[in-house]
């Protein structure tokens, strides 16, 4: 499967994961201007972007970049849509990482949620949707995502799905070491 030619839509009883588009602008602005949510976003190796967007213009620029990244095969950014409210309540970025560290041949997930969805039940529901399909979508051997120590609800969700905390650092393009990653390795 080539995810950059045919991006799937994933869903369960609570959420839909689908490619982002312009209709998500105002909903995602609520996510990326949410000061309670921003500390949980993963900006590792993102050239200093902290993903706090205080204006609709800046959010629009981010959406444009994310769409361009997909077109260029850099990463996929899914909108996370709550089936009840029909709102985009966050995004999941994922890409195949091939670098010279532990996280090579790895589907790397960045989960950004509005703060009222940063709870164990919702995080587990969302991460369960994408974890196993990642192996086919990206042809990877493992999946990883970051959860800082204060993200206790997210960590509980990760562990319940089968992710394990890694002591290995992710090495950035400039040599910076990033920690707090959890890894899922599919059982054969």
> What low-confidence regions span 5 or more consecutive residues with pLDDT below 50?
none
Give the DSSP E fraction (strand runs of 2 or more residues).
Answer: 25-35%
Largest sheet: number of strands, sense, barrel closure: 8 strands, mixed
Mean of residue pLDDT values: 95
Class per helix and strand makeup = alpha+beta
The strand order across the widest sheet is 1-2-3-4-5-6-10-7
Span of the ends, CA to CA: 20 Å
Number of helices: 4
Number of strands: 10
SSE series: EEHHEEEHEHEEEE
- Helical proportion, percent range: 25-40%
How big is the Rg? 15 Å
- Outline type: globular
Oligomer: single chain
Structural topology:
Elements: E1 10-11, E2 15-19, H1 25-32, H2 56-71, E3 76-82, E4 88-97, E5 106-113, H3 120-138, E6 142-146, H4 152-161, E7 164-165, E8 170-171, E9 177-178, E10 181-184
Parallel strand pairs: 5-6
Antiparallel strand pairs: 1-2, 2-3, 3-4, 4-5, 6-10, 7-10, 8-9
Walkthrough of the structure:
With 188 residues, the chain is of the alpha+beta class. Helices cover 28% and strands 25% of the residues. It has helices at residues 25-32, 56-71, 120-138, 152-161, and strands spanning 10-11, 15-19, 76-82, 88-97, 106-113, 142-146, 164-165, 170-171, 177-178, 181-184. The strands form 2 sheets. An 8-stranded mixed beta sheet has the order 1-2-3-4-5-6-10-7, with helices on both faces. The chain has a two-stranded antiparallel ribbon with strand order 8-9. Helix 1 crosses helix 2 (56-71). It is globular and about 40 Å long. The chain starts with 9 loop residues before the first strand and ends with a strand. The mean pLDDT is 95.
């Amino acid at each position: 499967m080539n995810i950059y030619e045919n991006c799937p839509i994933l869903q369960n009883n609570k959420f839909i994961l689908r490619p982002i588009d312009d209709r998500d602008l105002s909903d995602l602005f609520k996510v990326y201007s949410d000061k309670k949510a921003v500390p949980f976003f993963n900006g590792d190796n993102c050239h200093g972007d902290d993903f706090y967007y205080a204006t609709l213009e800046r959010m629009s620029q981010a959406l444009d970049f994310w769409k361009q990244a997909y077109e260029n095969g850099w990463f996929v950014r899914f909108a996370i849509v709550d089936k009840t409210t029909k709102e985009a309540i966050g995004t999941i970025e994922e890409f195949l990482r091939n670098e010279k560290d532990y996280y090579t041949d790895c589907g790397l997930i960045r989960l950004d949620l509005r703060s009222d969805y940063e709870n164990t039940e919702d995080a587990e529901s969302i991460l369960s949707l994408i974890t196993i399909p990642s192996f086919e979508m990206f042809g990877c051997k493992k999946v990883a995502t970051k959860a800082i120590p204060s993200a206790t609800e997210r960590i509980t969700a990760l562990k319940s799905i089968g992710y394990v905390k890694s002591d290995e650092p992710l090495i950035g393009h400039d040599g910076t070491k990033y920690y707090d990653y959890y890894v899922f390795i599919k059982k054969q």
